[in-house]
Design a protein that fits this description.
381 residues, alpha/beta, Aspartate Aminotransferase, domain 2, Aspartate Aminotransferase, domain 1, seven-stranded mixed β-sheet, five-stranded mixed β-sheet, 14 helices, globular, binds pyridoxal-5'-phosphate
């Protein structure tokens, strides 16, 4: 079946007992032991839950993956994958990545003795130089956060595999509707379901899928042993969100294209990073590996300070000045004082994160209202 049909139906069918069309929320911690001779499916809620199983099947289907494992958050999904590393192992990651993953690598993984190299994953030369015989994982995002750069997933996966490293792609920004990294050579695909998959900014969740039995065994063991599981209600909410992913993404993309075109022409805007713009360095690559350009963009305002940038963001009425992304509502953030606020000014400058950089998560509102809101705010500069 095709994507939109799988989004609505995969992993679920009307409940056998009642005919309920929506998946039941199995709010239980334990299950009766099955009679002798019958297969054991559920025993205890940490290891598995039927609502969670439906979610895992649904999302795995959207990524065309053999296996899917749901987690309590995107970060706990990251943690579960990286618990496979041991002291002395090495990981290569992007220098332009989600702040929480950057913090995890620097402050959780590195102190445990794993060597971490951050580099520019938009350059295969930089990646080749960073790889070592001890490299066990290459971790990438595309589009990246917060600069919305496009990484050549296939090319980097080939480099990584040449030294036997596993390839993890954080596909949160693209969603499975726009990009399917397993088909480009990734070994593991991670999502913060908090974002586009949930889609309504009403839950926190994570997900990993893979075609590897070995990785699935590792991840299932982490779920059972460490227990970073999503509750049944949150699983239900992600399932409900996933049903409309394809419809929402189309509007996210068309609105983002309209906002990017508007900002690119605006005298108070110095730069727009959006792969849907023909002038964008990631345009051709995005066209190759994505089906559309996504709902995320970055822009550099012609403001004179961090404080003035924040004032402009506070003056928006349709956009909300807030962390996060991927919901139906438009959000705007200021990486220099939010996601990357813990870095030194020099570190931020090296990464290209200026005080005037803003990151926009374009929602599914009317595009004209978004443009008018930006117009009234930018006129204050
Ligand atoms: C939000 C996010 C995460 C972390 O997910 P949580 O659900 O907040 O724990 C990881 N990667 C990306 C790209 C994200 O946007």
């Amino acid at each position: 079946m095709r994507f939109a049909t799988r989004a609505v139906h995969a992993g679920q069918k009307p409940d056998e007992a009642t005919g309920s069309i929506m998946p039941p929320i199995y709010q239980t911690s334990t299950y009766r032991q099955p009679p002798a001779g019958s297969a054991t499916t559920y025993e205890y809620g940490r290891a598995a839950n039927p609502t969670r199983t439906m979610l895992e099947k649904n999302l795995a289907s959207l990524e065309d993956a053999a296996y899917g494992i749901a987690f309590a958050s995107g970060m706990s999904a990251t943690d579960a994958i990286l618990r496979a590393l041991r002291p002395g192992d090495h990981i290569v990651a992007s220098d332009d990545m989600y702040g929480g993953n950057y913090r995890y690598l620097k402050l959780v993984l590195a102190p445990m003795g794993v060597q971490v190299t951050f580099t520019d994953l938009t350059s295969t030369d930089a990646v080749t130089q960073a790889l070592r015989s001890a490299t066990k994982v290459v971790w990438m995002e595309s589009p990246t956060n917060p600069l919305i750069q496009i990484v050549d997933i296939q090319a980097i996966a080939e480099c990584a595999h040449s030294v036997g490293a596993a390839v993890v792609v954080d596909n949160t920004f693209a969603s499975p509707y726009l990009q399917q990294p397993l088909s480009l050579g990734a070994d593991l695909v991670l999502h913060s379901t908090t974002k586009y998959l949930g889609g309504h900014s009403d839950l926190v969740g994570g997900f990993v899928c893979t075609n590897s039995e070995e990785w699935t065994e590792h991840l299932r063991f982490q779920v059972k042993c460490v227990g970073a599981i999503p509750g049944p209600m949150d699983c239900f909410l992600v399932l409900r969100g996933a049903k409309s992913l394809h419809v929402r993404m189309e509007r996210h993309c068309s609105n983002a294209q309209a906002v990017a075109a508007y900002l690119a022409d605006h005298p108070k805007i110095a730069q727009v990073n959006y792969p849907g713009l023909k002038s964008d360095p990631g345009h051709d690559l995005a066209k190759k590996q994505m089906t559309d350009f996504g709902g995320m963009l970055a822009a550099v305002l012609r403001t004179s300070s961090s404080a003035q940038t924040r004032d402009i963001l506070h003056s928006l009425n349709v956009f909300t000045f807030a962390e996060s992304l991927g919901g139906v509502e438009s959000l705007i953030g200021h990486p220099a004082t939010m996601s990357h606020g813990a870095l030194t000014a020099e570190e931020r400058a090296n990464l290209g994160i200026s005080d005037n950089l803003v990151r926009l998560s374009i929602g599914i509102e009317d595009a004209e209202d978004l443009l008018e809101d930006l117009e009234q705010a930018l006129s204050r500069i």
